[in-house]
Amino acid sequence: MKKSLALGMLILVFTIQFLNAYGVQRFPKPEFESGYVQPDTLQPLPRASLLAIIDLVVLFAALSFITWLVLKKRSRMGVFWISLFSLAYFGFYREGCVCSIGAIQNVTLALFDGSYVIPLTVIGFFILPLIFTLFFGRTFCAGVCPFGAIQDLVSFKPQKMGVRLNAVLGSIPYLYLGLAILYAATGTDFIICRYDPFVGIFRFDASLGMFLFAGILLISGIFIARPYCRFLCPYGVLLNWISRFSWRHLTITPAACIQCRLCEDSCPYDAIDMPVTGKNPEERTVTLRKLILICVLIPFFTILGGYTGSRLHESLAGVNGKVRLAAALLEPSASIGQPETFEIAAFKSSGKPISQIYSEAAWVLRQFYIGSWILGCFIGLIFGIILARRLVNLYQADYTPNKGRCFSCARCVDYCPVTPLTEEKQP
């Protein structure tokens, strides 16, 4: 019931945003005493609208084709060629925008700010990969996402990483996702776009810092496969969750597993779950103790994370323009001898009373206090689940891809000697 209500609310918001896109101005334009003339509203050029439709069509076609290659043809070479196409089209030709990863922020802002009109292309790029993931696993990550494609193509000598290091680094995307939603919901910033390591490369205009960041990721990607996808990508968190419920997912073997162990070290992403036969079952008392410990750990870390996050809300809100302006006006002595900032200059020319600025900053701080509680609880919950998962050993007979972590890249299928079973022809 809750899922249906949430889906209905999401559809309602997107419908309102769609209708807002075709709204008209109902009141006359204001007349400014300074002589400023309000410019006419710019309508998107027909070619721009056509390109947006083409982008969605190409995205749908690429997702469909790579899904067929992965699930039906089981072709690693086919995934490689799709990766090259996606890197060329979505990366360098369309300059990494629209981006499914950054669309998280647009959707969040649309949900919390009714005045924001989200482009239909952004909605499509956000939803389409999620729908395909729900049915077929993370085929979007396999070779359609240009960020994943550029990293996959440089993974020449990928090495295995330890389980503990994977768990620690793998928790960073959850924090990144939470911060991105918090800053977008409060209208503070789009941090995913601001700190995007690859769009600047695609557009050939990256700052020195972002260029070095992207270079470090690509160089390390030679030995640590897809470092951004595994340890930073916030959209990957959503894909990870949804892929666990996928209707049909990539399998290592097209038929029964023969336990040859050839695929054991084939995955550079540590996404293959090893068999757990359960020949030595735990005693009932041990299992009960683990269950009690799990029931204690998860609520404890959730509450601890929420409290910790609430204590950091002022620091997190410090990047908000209204909070920064209020702080500068509250302590003018701190800015003596420094050039006047853009925010202060805009405030002086606006004619607003200083009390209004303080009131707006207080409201933003209140939003960050609530949001930081939620963010902290979310991170604490994830941390508790990660620890609890280490205590549980689920029975598993064969080598199977982990539905959440698997990128459906089809690297492992080349190592499997099993061929599809065929029915013998009847005479």
Keywords:
19 helices; two-stranded antiparallel ribbon; disordered C terminus; globular; 427 residues; mainly alpha; 2 strands
Question: Short summary of the structure?
Answer:
By secondary structure, the protein is mainly alpha-helical. The protein has helices spanning 2-20, 46-73, 76-93, 103-112, 120-136, 139-144, 146-152, 163-169, 172-185, 191-194, 199-203, 208-220, 227-231, 235-243, 284-311, 313-317, 321-330, 342-350, 354-389, and strands at residues 272-273, 400-401. The protein folds into 2 domains: 7-17 and 51-272 and 402-415, no CATH class; 284-389, no CATH class.
- In angstroms, what is the radius of gyration? 25 Å
- In N-to-C order, the SSE pattern is HHHHHHHHHHHHHHEHHHHHE
| Overall SS class | mainly alpha
Q: How far is the N terminus from the C terminus?
A: 55 Å
Strand content: under 5%
Strand order of the largest sheet: 1-2
Mind explaining what this structure looks like?
This protein is mostly helical. It has two domains: about 5-15 and about 50-270 and about 400-415, no CATH class; about 285-390, no CATH class. The protein has 19 helices and two strands. The protein has helices at about 1-20, 45-75, 75-95, 105-110, 120-135, 140-145, 145-150, 165-170, 170-185, 190-195, 200-205, 210-220, 225-230, 235-245, 285-310, 315, 320-330, 340-350, 355-390, and strands spanning about 270-275, 400. The chain has a two-stranded antiparallel sheet with strand order 1-2. Helix 4 (about 105-110) packs across helix 5 and helix 4 (about 105-110) packs across helix 9. It starts with a helix and ends in a 26-residue tail after the last strand.
